[in-house]
Amino acid sequence: MRRLVDAIALGWLGVTRRPGRAVMSATGIALGIATLALVTGIPASGQADLDRRLTALGTDVLVAQASSATDDPPKLPVDAAAMVRRIGPVKDASAVANLGARVLRTDLADPNQTVGIVALAATPDLVEVVRGTVASGTFLAPAGLPTVVLGSSAAEWLGITHVDPTRPVRVLVGSTWLTVVGVLAPTPLAPELDQAALVDWSTAQASLGLDGHPTVVYLRAEESQVEAVSAVLPATLEPELAGMISVSRPSDALAAKRATQGTFSALFLGLAAVALVVGGIGVANTMIVSVMERRREIGMRQALGATRLDIRLQFVTEAIALSTLGGAAGLLLGCLGTAGFAALQGWPPVIPVVAMAGGFVGAMAIGALAGLYPAMLAARLSPTEALRT
Questions:
Q1: Which of 148, 162, 159 is nearest to 198 (CA)?
Q2: Which of 223, 251, 279 delimits the end of a domain?
Protein backbone atom coordinates (compact mmCIF):
# COMPACT_ATOMS: atom_id res chain seq x y z
CA MET A 1 0.00 0.00 0.00
CA ARG A 2 2.86 2.32 0.87
CA ARG A 3 4.41 1.68 -2.54
CA LEU A 4 1.14 2.60 -4.28
CA VAL A 5 0.74 5.80 -2.25
CA ASP A 6 4.30 6.85 -3.11
CA ALA A 7 3.69 6.07 -6.79
CA ILE A 8 0.53 8.20 -6.82
CA ALA A 9 2.33 11.09 -5.11
CA LEU A 10 5.23 10.93 -7.57
CA GLY A 11 2.85 10.61 -10.52
CA TRP A 12 0.94 13.69 -9.45
CA LEU A 13 4.20 15.56 -8.90
CA GLY A 14 5.26 14.68 -12.44
CA VAL A 15 2.02 16.13 -13.81
CA THR A 16 2.17 19.39 -11.85
CA ARG A 17 5.86 19.90 -12.64
CA ARG A 18 5.04 20.84 -16.24
CA PRO A 19 1.44 22.17 -16.19
CA GLY A 20 1.52 23.44 -19.78
CA ARG A 21 2.51 20.07 -21.15
CA ALA A 22 -0.02 18.35 -18.89
CA VAL A 23 -2.84 20.52 -20.22
CA MET A 24 -1.89 19.85 -23.83
CA SER A 25 -1.64 16.11 -23.19
CA ALA A 26 -4.97 15.95 -21.37
CA THR A 27 -6.78 17.96 -24.06
CA GLY A 28 -7.20 14.95 -26.34
CA ILE A 29 -8.76 12.90 -23.54
CA ALA A 30 -10.94 15.87 -22.56
CA LEU A 31 -12.24 16.25 -26.11
CA GLY A 32 -13.02 12.55 -26.32
CA ILE A 33 -14.92 12.50 -23.03
CA ALA A 34 -16.72 15.77 -23.86
CA THR A 35 -17.82 14.27 -27.18
CA LEU A 36 -19.00 11.14 -25.39
CA ALA A 37 -20.96 13.23 -22.91
CA LEU A 38 -22.56 15.29 -25.67
CA VAL A 39 -23.52 12.38 -27.93
CA THR A 40 -25.17 10.55 -25.04
CA GLY A 41 -26.61 13.53 -23.19
CA ILE A 42 -28.15 15.41 -26.14
CA PRO A 43 -30.04 12.41 -27.60
CA ALA A 44 -31.15 11.43 -24.08
CA SER A 45 -32.47 14.96 -23.54
CA GLY A 46 -34.21 14.87 -26.92
CA GLN A 47 -35.78 11.52 -26.14
CA ALA A 48 -36.96 12.79 -22.75
CA ASP A 49 -38.62 15.72 -24.52
CA LEU A 50 -40.15 13.35 -27.08
CA ASP A 51 -41.48 11.09 -24.33
CA ARG A 52 -42.89 14.11 -22.54
CA ARG A 53 -44.60 15.30 -25.71
CA LEU A 54 -46.01 11.86 -26.47
CA THR A 55 -47.35 11.62 -22.93
CA ALA A 56 -48.91 15.07 -23.16
CA LEU A 57 -50.31 14.64 -26.68
CA GLY A 58 -51.36 11.03 -26.33
CA THR A 59 -51.32 8.29 -28.93
CA ASP A 60 -55.05 8.20 -29.62
CA VAL A 61 -55.22 10.38 -32.74
CA LEU A 62 -55.78 8.80 -36.16
CA VAL A 63 -55.77 10.41 -39.60
CA ALA A 64 -57.76 9.02 -42.53
CA GLN A 65 -57.54 10.22 -46.11
CA ALA A 66 -58.21 8.94 -49.59
CA SER A 67 -55.18 7.80 -51.56
CA SER A 68 -54.81 6.66 -55.13
CA ALA A 69 -52.12 5.88 -57.67
CA THR A 70 -53.73 8.48 -59.94
CA ASP A 71 -54.02 12.24 -59.47
CA ASP A 72 -57.75 11.92 -58.78
CA PRO A 73 -58.26 10.04 -55.49
CA PRO A 74 -61.82 9.19 -54.45
CA LYS A 75 -63.69 11.80 -52.43
CA LEU A 76 -64.66 11.18 -48.83
CA PRO A 77 -68.36 11.42 -47.98
CA VAL A 78 -69.76 14.83 -47.15
CA ASP A 79 -70.75 13.59 -43.68
CA ALA A 80 -67.45 11.72 -43.12
CA ALA A 81 -66.82 13.24 -39.68
CA ALA A 82 -70.33 12.34 -38.49
CA MET A 83 -69.93 8.78 -39.81
CA VAL A 84 -66.68 8.37 -37.92
CA ARG A 85 -68.20 9.69 -34.69
CA ARG A 86 -70.70 6.83 -34.80
CA ILE A 87 -67.89 4.30 -34.30
CA GLY A 88 -68.21 3.29 -30.64
CA PRO A 89 -64.70 3.99 -29.25
CA VAL A 90 -64.33 7.27 -31.20
CA LYS A 91 -64.41 10.27 -28.87
CA ASP A 92 -64.47 13.04 -31.48
CA ALA A 93 -63.76 13.67 -35.15
CA SER A 94 -63.21 16.61 -37.45
CA ALA A 95 -62.53 17.00 -41.15
CA VAL A 96 -60.66 19.38 -43.44
CA ALA A 97 -60.98 19.91 -47.18
CA ASN A 98 -58.26 21.07 -49.55
CA LEU A 99 -59.56 24.13 -51.38
CA GLY A 100 -56.81 24.25 -53.99
CA ALA A 101 -56.63 28.03 -53.59
CA ARG A 102 -53.57 30.26 -53.36
CA VAL A 103 -52.96 32.24 -50.19
CA LEU A 104 -51.39 35.69 -50.61
CA ARG A 105 -50.67 38.61 -48.31
CA THR A 106 -51.54 41.10 -51.05
CA ASP A 107 -53.09 40.96 -54.49
CA LEU A 108 -49.89 42.54 -55.84
CA ALA A 109 -47.84 39.44 -54.96
CA ASP A 110 -46.83 36.93 -57.60
CA PRO A 111 -49.51 34.19 -57.44
CA ASN A 112 -46.89 31.62 -58.45
CA GLN A 113 -44.87 32.27 -55.29
CA THR A 114 -47.12 31.09 -52.47
CA VAL A 115 -44.35 29.30 -50.54
CA GLY A 116 -46.35 26.09 -50.22
CA ILE A 117 -49.22 27.41 -48.12
CA VAL A 118 -52.27 25.14 -48.40
CA ALA A 119 -55.80 26.52 -48.05
CA LEU A 120 -58.00 24.14 -46.04
CA ALA A 121 -61.63 24.39 -45.02
CA ALA A 122 -62.02 23.50 -41.35
CA THR A 123 -64.55 23.47 -38.53
CA PRO A 124 -64.17 24.93 -35.01
CA ASP A 125 -63.66 21.51 -33.39
CA LEU A 126 -60.48 20.73 -35.38
CA VAL A 127 -58.01 22.26 -32.93
CA GLU A 128 -59.40 20.20 -30.04
CA VAL A 129 -59.28 16.93 -31.98
CA VAL A 130 -55.61 17.35 -32.99
CA ARG A 131 -54.72 18.84 -29.58
CA GLY A 132 -53.51 22.05 -31.15
CA THR A 133 -53.12 25.37 -29.39
CA VAL A 134 -53.68 28.93 -30.55
CA ALA A 135 -50.51 30.99 -30.13
CA SER A 136 -52.19 34.31 -30.89
CA GLY A 137 -55.80 35.38 -31.34
CA THR A 138 -58.63 32.85 -31.47
CA PHE A 139 -59.66 29.84 -33.54
CA LEU A 140 -62.52 29.72 -36.03
CA ALA A 141 -65.85 30.77 -34.54
CA PRO A 142 -69.03 28.72 -35.04
CA ALA A 143 -70.80 31.76 -36.53
CA GLY A 144 -69.46 31.11 -40.04
CA LEU A 145 -67.70 34.46 -40.41
CA PRO A 146 -65.25 35.14 -43.29
CA THR A 147 -62.20 34.38 -41.20
CA VAL A 148 -58.99 32.39 -41.49
CA VAL A 149 -56.52 30.92 -38.99
CA LEU A 150 -52.88 30.47 -40.02
CA GLY A 151 -50.63 27.56 -39.15
CA SER A 152 -47.32 28.43 -37.48
CA SER A 153 -45.18 28.13 -40.63
CA ALA A 154 -47.76 29.80 -42.87
CA ALA A 155 -47.92 32.73 -40.45
CA GLU A 156 -44.14 33.15 -40.58
CA TRP A 157 -44.09 33.01 -44.37
CA LEU A 158 -46.81 35.66 -44.59
CA GLY A 159 -45.23 37.80 -41.87
CA ILE A 160 -48.27 37.58 -39.57
CA THR A 161 -47.09 36.05 -36.31
CA HIS A 162 -49.30 38.10 -33.98
CA VAL A 163 -52.99 38.95 -34.17
CA ASP A 164 -54.20 42.29 -32.82
CA PRO A 165 -58.03 42.56 -32.79
CA THR A 166 -57.76 46.35 -32.95
CA ARG A 167 -55.71 46.18 -36.15
CA PRO A 168 -57.20 43.39 -38.27
CA VAL A 169 -55.11 41.88 -41.05
CA ARG A 170 -56.56 40.26 -44.15
CA VAL A 171 -55.12 37.75 -46.59
CA LEU A 172 -56.26 36.80 -50.05
CA VAL A 173 -57.44 33.19 -50.33
CA GLY A 174 -58.24 32.46 -53.93
CA SER A 175 -60.20 35.57 -54.88
CA THR A 176 -61.68 36.16 -51.42
CA TRP A 177 -60.31 38.46 -48.74
CA LEU A 178 -60.47 36.88 -45.28
CA THR A 179 -59.62 38.32 -41.87
CA VAL A 180 -56.87 36.58 -39.89
CA VAL A 181 -58.28 35.87 -36.43
CA GLY A 182 -55.64 33.50 -35.09
CA VAL A 183 -52.23 31.88 -35.44
CA LEU A 184 -51.65 28.30 -34.32
CA ALA A 185 -48.65 27.05 -32.40
CA PRO A 186 -46.79 24.14 -34.07
CA THR A 187 -49.06 21.08 -34.12
CA PRO A 188 -46.97 17.91 -33.61
CA LEU A 189 -49.86 15.51 -34.24
CA ALA A 190 -50.86 17.26 -37.48
CA PRO A 191 -47.71 18.93 -38.84
CA GLU A 192 -49.40 19.50 -42.21
CA LEU A 193 -51.56 22.14 -40.49
CA ASP A 194 -48.45 24.20 -39.79
CA GLN A 195 -48.29 25.11 -43.50
CA ALA A 196 -52.04 25.68 -43.83
CA ALA A 197 -54.48 28.55 -43.90
CA LEU A 198 -57.64 27.25 -42.20
CA VAL A 199 -60.79 28.80 -43.62
CA ASP A 200 -64.20 28.62 -41.98
CA TRP A 201 -66.15 25.74 -43.59
CA SER A 202 -69.28 27.81 -44.32
CA THR A 203 -67.20 30.56 -45.88
CA ALA A 204 -65.37 28.03 -48.03
CA GLN A 205 -68.69 26.67 -49.33
CA ALA A 206 -70.11 30.12 -49.99
CA SER A 207 -67.09 31.86 -51.49
CA LEU A 208 -64.42 29.32 -52.47
CA GLY A 209 -66.40 26.63 -54.25
CA LEU A 210 -66.17 23.89 -51.61
CA ASP A 211 -68.47 21.02 -52.58
CA GLY A 212 -68.63 19.70 -49.01
CA HIS A 213 -66.41 16.65 -49.52
CA PRO A 214 -63.51 16.56 -47.02
CA THR A 215 -60.06 15.32 -47.95
CA VAL A 216 -58.79 14.36 -44.49
CA VAL A 217 -60.55 13.20 -41.33
CA TYR A 218 -58.91 13.52 -37.90
CA LEU A 219 -60.28 11.58 -34.96
CA ARG A 220 -59.55 10.69 -31.36
CA ALA A 221 -60.39 7.24 -30.02
CA GLU A 222 -59.99 5.39 -26.75
CA GLU A 223 -56.31 4.48 -26.55
CA SER A 224 -57.01 0.82 -25.92
CA GLN A 225 -59.19 0.67 -29.05
CA VAL A 226 -57.06 2.67 -31.50
CA GLU A 227 -55.98 -0.41 -33.46
CA ALA A 228 -59.55 -1.68 -33.70
CA VAL A 229 -60.82 1.70 -34.89
CA SER A 230 -58.01 1.90 -37.44
CA ALA A 231 -59.08 -1.47 -38.85
CA VAL A 232 -62.74 -0.52 -39.41
CA LEU A 233 -62.20 3.10 -40.42
CA PRO A 234 -61.66 2.59 -44.20
CA ALA A 235 -64.79 0.49 -44.61
CA THR A 236 -66.78 2.99 -42.56
CA LEU A 237 -65.80 5.88 -44.83
CA GLU A 238 -65.91 4.08 -48.18
CA PRO A 239 -67.35 0.53 -48.05
CA GLU A 240 -66.74 -0.08 -51.76
CA LEU A 241 -63.32 1.61 -51.95
CA ALA A 242 -61.91 0.76 -48.51
CA GLY A 243 -58.55 -0.15 -50.03
CA MET A 244 -58.10 3.45 -51.15
CA ILE A 245 -58.44 4.88 -47.65
CA SER A 246 -55.16 5.19 -45.78
CA VAL A 247 -55.10 5.45 -42.01
CA SER A 248 -52.09 6.71 -40.07
CA ARG A 249 -51.23 7.35 -36.46
CA PRO A 250 -49.25 10.63 -36.14
CA SER A 251 -47.71 9.63 -32.81
CA ASP A 252 -45.96 6.74 -34.59
CA ALA A 253 -44.02 9.27 -36.67
CA LEU A 254 -42.91 11.05 -33.51
CA ALA A 255 -41.86 7.79 -31.88
CA ALA A 256 -39.90 6.83 -35.01
CA LYS A 257 -37.50 9.65 -34.22
CA ARG A 258 -36.07 7.48 -31.46
CA ALA A 259 -34.66 5.02 -34.00
CA THR A 260 -33.10 7.87 -35.99
CA GLN A 261 -31.57 9.33 -32.85
CA GLY A 262 -30.17 5.90 -31.95
CA THR A 263 -28.48 5.56 -35.35
CA PHE A 264 -26.78 8.94 -35.09
CA SER A 265 -25.84 8.30 -31.46
CA ALA A 266 -24.02 5.10 -32.47
CA LEU A 267 -22.13 7.04 -35.16
CA PHE A 268 -21.06 9.78 -32.78
CA LEU A 269 -20.13 7.27 -30.09
CA GLY A 270 -17.70 5.80 -32.61
CA LEU A 271 -16.23 9.26 -33.19
CA ALA A 272 -15.91 9.77 -29.43
CA ALA A 273 -14.07 6.44 -29.14
CA VAL A 274 -11.66 7.52 -31.89
CA ALA A 275 -11.07 10.82 -30.10
CA LEU A 276 -10.31 8.94 -26.88
CA VAL A 277 -7.81 6.67 -28.64
CA VAL A 278 -6.12 9.70 -30.23
CA GLY A 279 -6.00 11.31 -26.80
CA GLY A 280 -4.42 8.15 -25.39
CA ILE A 281 -1.75 8.24 -28.10
CA GLY A 282 -1.04 11.84 -27.16
CA VAL A 283 -0.59 10.85 -23.51
CA ALA A 284 1.72 7.99 -24.53
CA ASN A 285 3.88 10.34 -26.62
CA THR A 286 4.08 12.81 -23.76
CA MET A 287 5.13 10.07 -21.34
CA ILE A 288 7.82 8.77 -23.72
CA VAL A 289 9.27 12.28 -24.01
CA SER A 290 9.06 12.60 -20.23
CA VAL A 291 11.03 9.36 -19.78
CA MET A 292 13.76 10.58 -22.12
CA GLU A 293 13.99 13.92 -20.30
CA ARG A 294 14.05 12.35 -16.81
CA ARG A 295 16.63 9.65 -17.29
CA ARG A 296 18.84 11.15 -14.59
CA GLU A 297 15.90 11.25 -12.14
CA ILE A 298 15.17 7.60 -12.90
CA GLY A 299 18.81 6.68 -12.33
CA MET A 300 18.89 8.52 -9.01
CA ARG A 301 15.77 6.70 -7.80
CA GLN A 302 17.21 3.34 -8.81
CA ALA A 303 20.50 4.15 -7.09
CA LEU A 304 18.56 4.99 -3.94
CA GLY A 305 16.83 1.60 -3.96
CA ALA A 306 13.75 2.00 -6.17
CA THR A 307 12.86 -1.22 -7.93
CA ARG A 308 11.73 -1.60 -11.53
CA LEU A 309 8.18 -2.02 -10.26
CA ASP A 310 8.45 1.32 -8.43
CA ILE A 311 9.57 3.01 -11.65
CA ARG A 312 6.78 1.40 -13.66
CA LEU A 313 4.16 2.42 -11.10
CA GLN A 314 5.44 6.00 -11.10
CA PHE A 315 4.99 6.50 -14.83
CA VAL A 316 1.75 4.52 -15.11
CA THR A 317 0.17 6.58 -12.32
CA GLU A 318 1.40 9.76 -13.99
CA ALA A 319 -0.31 8.72 -17.23
CA ILE A 320 -3.49 7.85 -15.32
CA ALA A 321 -3.37 11.24 -13.57
CA LEU A 322 -3.13 13.00 -16.95
CA SER A 323 -6.09 11.04 -18.28
CA THR A 324 -8.09 11.63 -15.10
CA LEU A 325 -7.60 15.38 -15.42
CA GLY A 326 -8.64 15.23 -19.06
CA GLY A 327 -11.63 13.04 -18.23
CA ALA A 328 -12.84 15.37 -15.47
CA ALA A 329 -12.50 18.42 -17.72
CA GLY A 330 -14.26 16.59 -20.55
CA LEU A 331 -17.15 15.55 -18.31
CA LEU A 332 -17.60 19.13 -17.13
CA LEU A 333 -17.56 20.48 -20.69
CA GLY A 334 -19.91 17.75 -21.90
CA CYS A 335 -22.42 18.29 -19.11
CA LEU A 336 -22.39 22.06 -19.60
CA GLY A 337 -22.75 21.61 -23.36
CA THR A 338 -25.65 19.18 -22.93
CA ALA A 339 -27.43 21.46 -20.47
CA GLY A 340 -26.89 24.50 -22.70
CA PHE A 341 -28.14 22.78 -25.86
CA ALA A 342 -31.15 21.34 -24.04
CA ALA A 343 -32.00 24.79 -22.68
CA LEU A 344 -31.83 26.31 -26.18
CA GLN A 345 -34.16 23.60 -27.52
CA GLY A 346 -36.51 23.78 -24.55
CA TRP A 347 -35.73 20.17 -23.60
CA PRO A 348 -35.34 18.77 -20.08
CA PRO A 349 -31.57 18.24 -19.62
CA VAL A 350 -30.68 14.59 -19.08
CA ILE A 351 -27.19 13.48 -18.04
CA PRO A 352 -26.76 9.70 -18.52
CA VAL A 353 -24.82 8.91 -15.35
CA VAL A 354 -23.90 5.36 -16.37
CA ALA A 355 -22.50 6.49 -19.73
CA MET A 356 -20.59 9.34 -18.10
CA ALA A 357 -19.11 7.08 -15.42
CA GLY A 358 -18.21 4.49 -18.04
CA GLY A 359 -16.49 7.13 -20.15
CA PHE A 360 -14.53 8.41 -17.17
CA VAL A 361 -13.39 4.91 -16.21
CA GLY A 362 -12.55 4.30 -19.86
CA ALA A 363 -10.38 7.43 -19.90
CA MET A 364 -8.47 6.17 -16.87
CA ALA A 365 -8.03 2.77 -18.52
CA ILE A 366 -6.72 4.38 -21.70
CA GLY A 367 -4.33 6.41 -19.57
CA ALA A 368 -3.07 3.24 -17.91
CA LEU A 369 -2.55 1.56 -21.29
CA ALA A 370 -0.88 4.67 -22.67
CA GLY A 371 1.54 4.68 -19.74
CA LEU A 372 2.57 1.01 -19.98
CA TYR A 373 5.15 1.32 -22.76
CA PRO A 374 6.82 4.49 -21.38
CA ALA A 375 6.88 2.84 -17.92
CA MET A 376 8.57 -0.25 -19.36
CA LEU A 377 11.15 1.97 -21.10
CA ALA A 378 11.88 3.76 -17.85
CA ALA A 379 12.17 0.51 -15.87
CA ARG A 380 14.66 -0.96 -18.37
CA LEU A 381 17.20 1.80 -17.81
CA SER A 382 20.17 0.78 -15.72
CA PRO A 383 21.27 3.22 -12.99
CA THR A 384 24.72 3.76 -14.52
CA GLU A 385 23.33 4.40 -18.01
CA ALA A 386 20.66 6.72 -16.68
CA LEU A 387 23.08 8.74 -14.52
CA ARG A 388 25.55 9.06 -17.40
CA THR A 389 23.06 11.07 -19.50
A1: 148
A2: 251
For residues 340 and 277, what is the distance between their CA atoms, to the nearest angstrom?
27
pLDDT of residue 134: 95
- Residue 136: domain span: 61-251
Residues 295 and 273 in one domain: yes
Of 196, 226, 251, the residue that ends a domain is: 251
DSSP labels for 167-214? S-EEEEETTEEEEEEEEEPP-TT-GGGGGEEEEEHHHHHHHS---S--
Q: Are residues 189 and 271 in the same domain?
A: no
- pLDDT, residue 211, reads 92
Domain count, the chain: 2
* 129 and 195 inside one domain: yes
Q: How many residues does the chain have?
A: 389
189 and 286 in a single domain? The answer is no
Region class of 180: left (phi > 0), else alpha (psi between -120 and 50), else beta: beta
Distance CA 301, CA 257 (A): 60
Predicted pLDDT of residue 200: 93
- Torsion, Cα of 304, 307, 310, 315 (10° steps): 90
Share in percent of the chain as helix, strand, coil (round to 5): 60, 15, 25
pLDDT at 259: 58
Residue 129 · residue 221 · CB < 8 Å = no
DSSP 92: E
Residues 133 and 241 in one domain: yes
Q: Which residues contact 309 (CB under 8 A, 6 or more apart)?
A: 3, 379
Torsion on CA atoms 182, 188, 189, 193, rounded to nearest 10: 40
pTM: 0.62
Below-70 pLDDT ranges, the chain: 1-16, 55-56, 68-73, 109-115, 253-266, 383-389
Residue 155 CB partners (closer than 8 Å, separation 6+): 161, 183, 184
Do 170 and 274 share a domain, yes or no? no
pLDDT tens figures, 90-126: 999 999 999 989 999 887 766 666 568 999 999 999 9
Same domain for 12 and 66, yes or no, is no
Backbone angles phi, psi at 121, to 5 degrees: -80, 135
H-helix or E-strand containing 36?
Answer: helix 19-57
